[in-house]
């Protein structure tokens, strides 16, 4: 049996990646609907070996599907997700709109799968921030072995985290600089080509940005509210793949070798860690991959029971689309959604 699935925001970077990963992971789909704004109606997107024409969210009947993957932004989610949930299907929302709602579980399947039990309160499940997702996948197995007291995280986030407009700006500015053209910023607050921007999201009254606040709030909800966490988020001129420098302080000694062994056995993690010129993972290495990669595991001698890690992942995949599809798999495995669309065919 298969599911009737709608992907909302199907023309965006993450929406297209959701369609790709649903096919790659052979998720049981009987009917696929691509849904987007009215202006995108009729645009064709790929699903497996066929194309699907986008339907308008304003006129789509969500009661005719079993599962909705939302990737249309926070405003659209706030307008539509609860309405869709009340219509019957389960909604997996990629925006920040419901992440901190106490009646909506915020899930990374490798970390807190049991939270899926709360999903029926609103028929909505929240997908975390892309940087949070890869962070908690790396922290969870270590936290289980030796409680993390404090974490200091600096992110190096690719422009794809800002959508197609961010990727276009990096490309356009790079060409303009080489060609002596106009490299003035339009999407980002400052030039992103050959530069770094230590601001993602608006500044809050406490001096932190919204992105930084999301990371600690979501980590507390998913993993442990007692972890003291401070974050600096930086946009970097990389197209795909987020990286994180992570400094951890534990409640007991944990050696780099022990940490490597723990992480090698952890779901969703790949350890690539040798003291060699190519013994670590970069964003280019992680692009297109499912795993959260951990490298540069080493002792921090400046604090008691301290370790440093380098964590890299494809933000469009594990940071967004892959995690959403893994949540869909979890719903299927736990029987929290039932197929109503008939028998699945191999070619959809």
UniProtKB/TrEMBL annotation:
> Into which EC class is this enzyme placed?
oxidoreductase
Q: Which GO terms describe its biological process?
A: 'de novo' L-methionine biosynthetic process; diaminopimelate biosynthetic process; isoleucine biosynthetic process; lysine biosynthetic process via diaminopimelate; threonine biosynthetic process
Q: Which reaction does it catalyse?
A: L-aspartate 4-semialdehyde + phosphate + NADP(+) = 4-phospho-L-aspartate + NADPH + H(+)
Q: State if Oxidoreductase is listed as a keyword.
A: yes
Q: Where is the Semialdehyde dehydrogenase NAD-binding domain?
A: 4-119
Question: Belongs to which family?
Answer: Belongs to the aspartate-semialdehyde dehydrogenase family.
| Subunit structure, as described in the record | Homodimer.
Q: What is this protein called?
A: Aspartate-semialdehyde dehydrogenase
Gene transcribed to yield this protein: asd
């Amino acid at each position: 049996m298969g599911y009737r699935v709608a992907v909302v925001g199907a023309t965006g970077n993450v929406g297209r990646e959701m369609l790709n990963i649903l096919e790659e992971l052979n998720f049981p789909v009987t009917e696929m609907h691509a849904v987007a704004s009215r202006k995108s109606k009729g645009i064709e997107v790929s699903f497996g070996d066929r194309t699907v024409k986008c339907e308008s969210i304003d006129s789509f009947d969500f009661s005719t599907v079993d599962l909705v993957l939302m990737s249309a932004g926070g405003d659209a989610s706030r307008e539509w997700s609860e309405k869709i949930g009340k219509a019957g299907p389960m909604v997996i929302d990629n925006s920040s709109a419901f992440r901190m709602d106490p009646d909506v579980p915020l899930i990374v399947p490798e970390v807190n799968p049991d939270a899926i039990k709360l999903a029926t309160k609103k028929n909505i499940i929240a997908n975390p921030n892309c940087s949070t997702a890869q962070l908690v996948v790396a922290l969870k197995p270590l936290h289980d072995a030796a409680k993390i007291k404090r974490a200091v995280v600096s992110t190096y986030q690719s422009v794809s985290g800002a959508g197609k407009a961010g990727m276009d700006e990096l490309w356009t500015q790079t060409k303009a600089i080489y060609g002596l053209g106009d490299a003035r910023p339009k999407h980002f607050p400052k030039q992103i080509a050959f530069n770094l921007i230590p601001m993602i999201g608006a500044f809050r009254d406490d001096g932190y940005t919204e992105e930084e606040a999301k990371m600690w709030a979501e980590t507390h909800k998913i993993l442990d509210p007692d972890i003291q966490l401070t974050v600096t988020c930086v946009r970097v001129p990389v197209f795909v793949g987020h990286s994180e420098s992570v400094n951890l302080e534990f409640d007991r000694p944990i050696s780099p070798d022990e940490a490597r062994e723990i992480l090698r056995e952890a779901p969703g993690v790949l350890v690539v860690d040798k003291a060699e010129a190519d013994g670590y993972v970069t964003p280019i290495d992680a692009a297109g991959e499912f795993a959260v990669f951990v490298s540069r595991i080493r002792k921090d001698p400046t604090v008691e029971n301290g370790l440093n890690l380098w964590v890299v992942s494809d933000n469009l995949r594990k940071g967004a689309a892959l995690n959403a599809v893994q949540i869909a798999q979890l719903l299927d495995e736990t029987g929290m959604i039932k197929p109503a669309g008939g028998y699945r065919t191999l070619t959809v």
